[in-house]
Amino acid sequence: MADLERVRLGVVPGQRTVRDHREVVRIPDPRRQCLEEIKTIRGHPDEIPENHQALHWAQLQTYGALFCRARGVDEVHLALVYVDVATQGETVLRQLCSAEQLEAAFEQRCEAFLAWSQQEAADNVGVPLTTVQARWRAAKVRLALAGLSAPDLC
Fold it and tell me: Which of 64, 109, 133, 142 pairs with 29 at a CA distance of 20 to 30 A?
């Protein structure tokens, strides 16, 4: 029986606090140390742009790092599950990752995000808030799709 677990990103790597919304990940068999991230799509996963797939892996790998921390495990099986909403077909991509690999990638993503956010803050000094908010949204998308992913981690 699969368990659903809400993951709250609120960890402190170094002196930073990372916060995000609650996300549901599926744990098909808690004894197997496996996490699944389910993405709904239309069409075949081969049609998903490479940068989007890399972002999906980065998200799952981040959850994997938090899972390993919380449960004190040395490795975790990650499964990225694409479900085609039209056909209900599933494609499952798998990785076995060590906690050490996942933690290093998580730290690297935090460092990249911190550097980017500090630069954004410096660039926005004296700019009207509505302009800053519009820039922030656009830059967030560019950053997510361009630099924070690590598709070949494990």
Answer: 109
